[in-house]
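Before the break, one more example. Copy the sequence into your notebook; we will annotate it together after we see the structure.
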Amino acid sequence: MVIGPRPWRVAPSILVALALGCGPDLSYWRVVQEGEDAGPPPGQDGGTGTIDPPDLGAPCPNPHVTAVTIAGSSGTARVIRLDPQTGARCRDADLIAVREDFGYAIYDVDWGAGTGTVLGIRDAVLGLGEDGFPAWRAAPPESGFDGRWVVSLGGSQNRVAAAWSERSSSNLEYLRLFDSGGHSLGEPIELPFFSAMVSAHPDGSGRLVWASRRGEIRAVVVSEGIGDIGDEDGEELFAGSADIADDTALGSRQHLDSDVTTGRMAMTHDAGVAIWAAGGPAPTTAISCPSLCDGYHVAAPDPVSATGAFVICTRDGDRHLVHAASSGCERWIDGTSLGSRSLQDVTVVHAAL
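Here is what the structure looks like once it is written out:
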């Protein structure tokens, strides 16, 4: 008789253990007859042993907030996820939140039910899988491409749009479309001359919304078959009604972000954030947090509060993440705690992680 599964696997450990004055634990082994197959070693190939999964931090609920950062050129950008009810961080372990795939800058982040989370990074668009890890990377051939603005358009086609500029420092010039797996669709589309920002239409139609710093906001249908978008193409969002951008007290428009799931858009201006519900009238008021913010850069609609938003704003030169609502404001991320990293964009993810 021999000790299974094979004598040569056991004998060396027995000899070493005896030399040290102690016997090995043989409780996982059994005695078999010569020539009998003892099966796989314990804990392997169907055995009872398991490998502990890595600790990625507390799970993120559905929905949750995702913010992204830019680091110094020698650092690595970070993805920060938070519970939208409490502001507590989730899935915050370095293994999932700080990846070499991100490079030093994540310029933009968006989410869609058919595309998942997409990141705009230097020279590429990066798609994250349902587990939060990189799933695909699309790097268009244009030498001037940068993932400065990425949009999950919604609608039935599950497309991602990426906009960038090759020459202008203030406006966007080109747009590329990708499918949900990162495959490029068609050639670059020229954007209107004064387009400074793009977003998805919050009604879920799959249309692209573009706007300048002031003036009208327009919604257009985009496809891989068109070569350019004209200034008058599509339809004006608030035709026949006053646009809050006409209120000079709010300053110029800085950012648009749509939450297709809740049908709302956050419109960020120098001095505050307005929330628009698809199909409703143009907003006439904006929320602000004067005790916490002296400038507003980016905002995403709060999925719980019809008038609330998650806002990246500045105070004394540093960028912070603030939960803003008509009932009050609360700072959720102090930008000074991020070291060399700076907050760049924020969106809402309607999926657990």
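The CA atoms of residues 132 and 165 lie 28 Å apart. The two ends are 52 Å apart (CA to CA). Try to locate both features in your own notes.
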